[in-house]
């Protein structure tokens, strides 16, 4: 038993005694031909397992269009912030202030749309300009606060743990002062569309978005293959590419179909028709379709993935995480980089605050409480290494989805609230343990 | 080694009267060295003699407290590694300074990525360039897709060397380039140095190993306790002379 490390498949045994396994693969495994990441497969597997298990226990209640819709919109806020946390953790920092920063941004936006634009600017309530102004102000607040954190960490060399631990207390209570501790609502009607169930695309537009997403995915696959061929790099077999394309297409279209299958209650539709002075035709139905907040998350995921993989900024973030000294010696301004990373985190906190307050339809004092822990957990479950240099955007989103599924699945089953948190905490530790074992097996440091 | 370097013109780089101190300790104390095109100058000395510190001033990692650097006879301001790169000064650090989590081409182009017209990094083009230069430096190199943490010591070294050579270095600093290498790879580095000097590149070679220096260098500068003991033509001195300079700080006695 000395040579078992390389090839676990016994079927490769008959390929000549001198053939070194792995050097010139005659028969590669299905997954290696598809060039899929084993860690990603593991996470998807865990997610599917969680969903199926809850579906069985709840007697088919978990995987209904309604619950999947709700699960999706509940995940958005944490998932948006988790993509930013990937960058923060990859550069060997941490951000404990995201929940509080979300609250401050939410408070700024709530005050902007209930006090500044209607009264100070005299636009009145539900003016079409209210939501755009609010969002710009909120994002600017997040950007400034995040950049300030980054400056304290990068230029003044205060550890990120301390800066953001301070921020956790400071921004939670700045939010309090901004709103005098009151719950602020109702919010602007356009703004509320960003929250989830109040703003969906409807069936037709959801299909259009789905088809655009499919086309974009297929184009990206084709483009990647073409670039490899242009430089004479090895490419996957055609059948593998086609299979990937089919799987992605199927997943996107299935997701749209499920969201569309969630029907708007007929009472609600009747009221909508009455509001326009019409009566609802007999047998009329409509699905909710894709929530706008999910579109926001998809846009964030695409932009963040592009930054991570295709821009110099992303390359420098990962290089700095892998070896800060090397990055510095390569002429990378690591201090400014820290400011940028925290500024991105701030902007994402503002976007998450926008989605979270719109979903609740008001700003409350405790909005985003403990979100910092959920966000860090999502990033870490998603495979982001706290030692820096390793992490993916899709992993963090998947991590957020797994956490939210666990939480809401347990709530559906009727698990006591304290036990829910005990399970989530244990899962976090267990997930990291699995990750460590997996990395050791790979021989990576 | 026959000395056929023309030292009548302007030196490629000249460091004049450099001082660096860390909290009262004079790591480099009024040291001057120079380097001509096509020349290899060895920097020798014990650990802590100040050779790495001196050279980090040239590569932009440290700032000198006083003293000047001249490149092609013109005064150069080198405040950070980016400035050094602007003067075509490239460094192979003893630690290699590689980001272990990135692949070879990302490391090679770190800080100087090839981008597409839209401003995105062009990984395919960078990998193709990496394959080209590695084909020249280390034809056995295959692991282009793996992070450099998965590479052997020699392979990592060749990535670091490729990074310094690829961008048309005129002044190359090698800090213990063979410390982690086996005999085969050491030979490869030696051949590379000969090839580079033919192209008129000036090389500072920092080393512990006297034999390395005697084989590869034209001149040798010896440092002790932050001070320059002396600079000698390799052809004029013996191993023992150099050992005397390193250990005792004693200049070799000259005939006549």
Automatic annotation (TrEMBL), chain A:
Keywords: Cell inner membrane, Cell membrane, Membrane, Sugar transport, Transmembrane, Transmembrane helix, Transport
Topology class, membrane: Multi-pass membrane protein
Membrane-traversing stretches: 40-62, 68-89, 96-116, 128-145, 152-171, 204-222, 242-262, 288-308, 337-356, 376-401, 422-438
Regions of compositional bias (Low complexity) in chain numbering: 1-12
An annotated GO cellular component: plasma membrane
GO molecular-function term, one example from the UniProt record: transmembrane transporter activity
Main location: membrane
Disordered: annotated segments: 1-24
Keyword rRNA-binding part of the UniProt annotation: no
Subcellular location per the Swiss-Prot or TrEMBL entry: Cell membrane
InterPro entries (UniProt xref): ABC_transp_permease
PANTHER family given in the database record: ABC TRANSPORTER PERMEASE PROTEIN YPHD-RELATED-RELATED, XYLOSE TRANSPORT SYSTEM PERMEASE PROTEIN XYLH
Primary role: Part of the binding-protein-dependent transport system for D-xylose. Probably responsible for the translocation of the substrate across the membrane.
Protein name in UniProt: Xylose transport system permease protein XylH
From TrEMBL, chain B:
Keyword field contains Transmembrane: no
Keywords recorded for this protein, A-Z: ATP-binding, Cell membrane, Membrane, Nucleotide-binding, Repeat, Sugar transport, Translocase, Transport
Residues in ABC transporter domain copies: 13-250
Membrane topology annotation: Peripheral membrane protein
Cell division in keyword set: no
Domain of life: Bacteria
MF-aspect GO terms: ATP binding; ATP hydrolysis activity
Localization terms from the record: Cell membrane
Listed SUPFAM superfamilies: P-loop containing nucleoside triphosphate hydrolases
Pfam family, one: ABC_tran
GO cellular component terms listed in the entry, alphabetical order: plasma membrane
Full protein name: Sugar ABC transporter ATP-binding protein
């Amino acid at each position: 038993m000395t040579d078992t490390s390389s090839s676990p498949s016994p079927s490769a045994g008959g390929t000549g005694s001198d053939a070194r396994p792995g050097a010139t693969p005659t028969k590669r495994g299905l997954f290696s031909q598809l060039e899929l990441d084993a860690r990603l497969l593991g996470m998807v597997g865990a997610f599917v397992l969680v969903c199926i298990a809850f579906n069985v226990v709840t007697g088919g209640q978990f995987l209904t269009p309604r619950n999947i819709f709700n699960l999706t919109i509940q995940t958005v806020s944490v998932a948006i912030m988790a993509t930013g946390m990937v960058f923060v953790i990859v550069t060997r920092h941490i951000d404990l202030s995201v929940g509080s920063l979300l609250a401050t941004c939410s408070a700024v936006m709530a005050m902007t749309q209930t006090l500044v634009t209607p009264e100070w600017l005299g636009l009145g309530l539900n003016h079409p300009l209210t939501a755009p102004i609010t969002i710009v102000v909120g994002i600017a607040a997040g950007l400034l606060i995040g950049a300030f954190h980054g400056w304290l960490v990068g230029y003044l060399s205060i550890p990120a743990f301390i800066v953001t631990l301070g921020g956790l207390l400071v921004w939670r209570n700045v939010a309090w002062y901004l709103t005098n501790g009151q719950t602020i609502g109702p919010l602007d009607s356009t703004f509320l569309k960003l929250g989830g169930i109040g703003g969906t695309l409807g069936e037709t537009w959801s299909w259009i978005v789905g088809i655009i997403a499919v086309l974009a995915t297929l184009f990206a696959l084709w483009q990647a293959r073409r670039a490899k061929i242009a430089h004479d790099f090895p490419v996957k077999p055609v059948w593998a590419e086609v299979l990937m394309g089919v799987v992605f297409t199927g997943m996107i279209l299935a997701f749209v179909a499920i969201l569309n299958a969630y029907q708007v209650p007929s009472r609600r539709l009747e009221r909508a028709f009455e509001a326009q002075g019409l009566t609802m035709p007999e047998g009329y139905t409509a699905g909710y379709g894709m929530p706008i907040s999910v579109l926001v998350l998809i846009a964030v995921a695409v932009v963040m993935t592009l930054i991570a993989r295709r821009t110099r900024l992303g390359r420098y973030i990962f290089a700095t995480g892998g070896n800060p000294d090397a990055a510095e010696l390569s002429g990378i301004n690591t201090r400014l980089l820290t400011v940028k990373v925290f500024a991105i985190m701030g902007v994402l906190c503002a976007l998450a605050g926008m989605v979270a307050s719109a979903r609740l339809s008001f700003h409350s004092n405790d909005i985003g409480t403990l979100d910092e822990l959920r966000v860090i957990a999502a990033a870490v479950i998603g495979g982001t290494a706290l030692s820096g240099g390793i992490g993916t955007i899709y992993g963090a989103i998947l991590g957020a989805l797994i956490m939210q599924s666990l939480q809401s699945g347990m709530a559906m089953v009727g698990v006591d609230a304290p036990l829910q948190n005990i399970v989530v905490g244990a899962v976090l530790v267990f997930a990291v343990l699995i990750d460590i074992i997996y990395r050791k097996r790979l021989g990576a440091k | 080694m026959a000395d056929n370097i023309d030292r009548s013109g302007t030196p490629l780089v000249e460091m004049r009267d450099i001082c660096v101190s860390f909290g009262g300790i004079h790591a480099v104390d009024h040291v001057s060295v120079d380097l001509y095109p096509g020349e290899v100058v060895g920097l020798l000395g014990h650990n802590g003699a100040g050779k790495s510190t001196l050279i980090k001033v040239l590569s932009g990692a440290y700032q000198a407290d006083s003293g000047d650097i001249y490149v092609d006879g013109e005064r150069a301001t080198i405040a950070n590694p980016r400035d050094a790169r602007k003067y075509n000064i490239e460094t192979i650090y003893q630690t290699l300074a590689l980001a272990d989590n990135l692949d070879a081409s990302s490391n090679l182009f770190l800080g100087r990525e090839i981008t597409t017209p839209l401003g995105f990094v062009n990984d395919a083009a960078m990998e193709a360039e990496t394959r080209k230069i590695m084909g020249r430096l280390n034809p056995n190199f295959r692991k282009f897709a793996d992070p450099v943490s998965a590479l052997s010591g020699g392979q990592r070294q060749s990535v670091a060397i490729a990074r310094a050579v690829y961008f048309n270095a005129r002044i190359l600093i090698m800090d213990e380039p063979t410390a982690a290498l086996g005999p085969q790879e050491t030979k490869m580095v030696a051949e590379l140095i000969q090839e580079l000097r033919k192209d008129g590149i000036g090389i500072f070679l920092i080393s512990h190993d006297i034999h390395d220096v005697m084989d590869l260098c034209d001149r040798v500068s010896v440092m002790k306790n932050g001070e320059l003991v002396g600079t000698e033509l390799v052809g004029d001195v013996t191993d023992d002379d150099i050992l005397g300079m390193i250990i005792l700080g004693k200049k070799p006695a000259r005939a006549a």
